[in-house]
C-alpha cells in the first residue's frame, strides 16, 4: 500500500499534543478551583481549534482511515473538555461551561458526519485493529453505529455537567480549598493525573497509532495548533489568583526598591 497524505494537522506531533492535552485534563480541572485567573480559556481555545480542524477535514473528505476515529474519540474528548470548566467565580465558570458545551456538541456533530459521509468511502480499503486486522465493510459500519449512538448519548448527558460543574466549583471557599490534600494540587497532579488519564486512554491511543501505521497515513504539522497548545500549557502554570486577572498582575509586578537597592516588597 502506498503512502496516503491527508490534510495538515494530524502529524505525529499534532496527535501527541492531542493526547497530552487529554492527560493534562485532571491538572487543568484542579488548577481552576478557586482561581480567578482566566487561564482555562487557553485550554478552551485549543479544544475549539482542534475540533474545527477535525470538522473541516471531515467536510472535505480528507481524513481517509482516520475517519474511523471521531466516533471513538467522542468520549475521550468529552473527558478532556470537562477538565477546563472550573473557575473561581461563577461568571467565568458559566462562560467556560457554555464554551465547553458548544465544543461537545461540535464534536458529536463531527463524529456523526464522519460516520455517515466519510467511512462509506473506505469499504474494502480502510483497515483497523479489532482482535486482529479488519477491513471496513457495511457490516462493520453498522457495528460502529452502535458505538456511535452510545458515545453520543454519553456526550449529550455531559452537557449538563458542563454547566453544573463550573457553577458548583465556583462556590469553593478558601477554607475548603485549604482542606484539599497537597497531592491534589495543580503541580502534583500534572504527572499523577497524566498517568491516571493514560491508564484510561492508552487503548484508544494505541488503536489510533495502529490505524495510522497500517494505512500508511502521513500529514504535515499544523503549527497553529502547536502554538495554541504551548499557550494553553503556559497559562496553566500561571499562579492561582483570588482576584480577577490577579495572576497577570503578579507576573508583571516589580518589587519595590528603596535607596541603596534594598528590596522592600517581593512578589509572592
Any descriptors?
two-stranded antiparallel sheet, single chain, mainly alpha, disordered C terminus, 63% helix, 268 residues, two-stranded parallel sheet, 2 domains, 4% strand, 10 helices, elongated
Task: Write a structural description.
The strands form two sheets. Strands 1-4 form a two-stranded parallel sheet. Strands 2-3 form a two-stranded antiparallel ribbon. With 268 residues, the chain is mainly alpha-helical. The longest helix has 32 residues, at 138-169. Residues 263-268 have low confidence and may be disordered. It folds into two domains: 4-237, no CATH class; 244-268, no CATH class. The protein is built from ten helices and four strands; from the N terminus they run βαααααββαααβαα. It has helices spanning 12-23, 25-31, 40-59, 69-82, 90-118, 138-169, 174-178, 186-214, 223-236, 246-252; strands at 4-5, 127-129, 133-135, 217-218.
Calculate the mean pLDDT score and round it.
Answer: 80
Radius of gyration: 21 Å
Shape: elongated
Per DSSP, the total helix count is 10
Spatial order of strands in the largest sheet: 1-4
Strand content: under 5%
Main sheet: strands, sense, barrel: 2 strands, parallel
- How many discrete domains? 2
Structural class comes to mainly alpha
Number of strands: 4
Q: What is the element layout, followed by pairings?
A:
Blueprint: E1 4-5, H1 12-23, H2 25-31, H3 40-59, H4 69-82, H5 90-118, E2 127-129, E3 133-135, H6 138-169, H7 174-178, H8 186-214, E4 217-218, H9 223-236, H10 246-252
Parallel strand pairs: 1-4
Antiparallel strand pairs: 2-3
Helix pairs in contact: 1-8, 1-9, 2-8, 3-5, 3-9, 4-5, 4-6, 5-6
